[in-house]
Model the fold of this input.
Amino acid sequence: MKYEISGNNILLFEPDLILDEVLDTGQAFGWEKTAPGHYRGYCLDEYLEIEGEDGRFTLRDTSEEAFLKVWAKYFDLETDYAALRREYSAADPTLKEACEFSRGIRLLRQDGWEALLSFIFSSNNNITRIKGIISRLREHYGHFPTAEELCRETPESLGFLRSGFRARYCVDAAKKVAGGEIDLGKIPEMPYEEAKKTLMGICGVGPKVADCALLSGFGKTEAFPMDVWMKRVMERYYPGGFPEELYRTRGIAQLYLFNYIRKSEEAARV
DNA sequence: CGCCAGGACGCCC
DNA sequence: GGGCGTCATGGC
Done:
């Protein structure tokens, strides 16, 4: 991890980071692109403006303390993604292609509660609308609402979110977390399968939402979210199953594959 | 107007 | 245990 302090800013040097591939691909929904190569957004209640390309980035008005405590972790800067890509690329030609296609992908290590709630709202929804819902959440409460705040709401009182049938999922999650029925603090130390089963105890959290939350919010890199795109990848390239030797970090491999299949089909449609 | 969006649920057999 | 309609909302 290479960085410098420059006045009120942090200068970050990270060749394996492309903001568009990380902040604008449906991993996190709290980021807004304000100009080419320029984003602003949140990790829970920490605000950041970041800009840059070609391995050089500026984190505006960011203390070294906030950088080390929040953003280094958020952007997963301690993980060697070049090494991961080498491992994936050696496993099979499809992964090799996907890794070369988007070399700037990283796993955003989000706050667990924020990730859980965000992916609950992602159910049968599109990225633009999910961002809108998350934005209205922050705007309404003046910060990212806690489970304690949200458990006092009803699906009707959350009408301002315009989140449709997902409002009752949100309330159920808040009630179970605030009431102690589900202790999010214990999820990271649980084995993957047990953690997944636990999160699926929330109404509106099925296998896909649980895996997304576990991967991005609770450090479970073996979580392997299976949506319509990844089902297509599995049918087409992995009829015999995904390589077992990659099990431990297959969730990160999934990020490369997801981006690869989506972007290339998008391009083919035009 | 119909279709789709990083799904989950309830009901059916 | 798999298949299918339904669930709000908004962009296209």
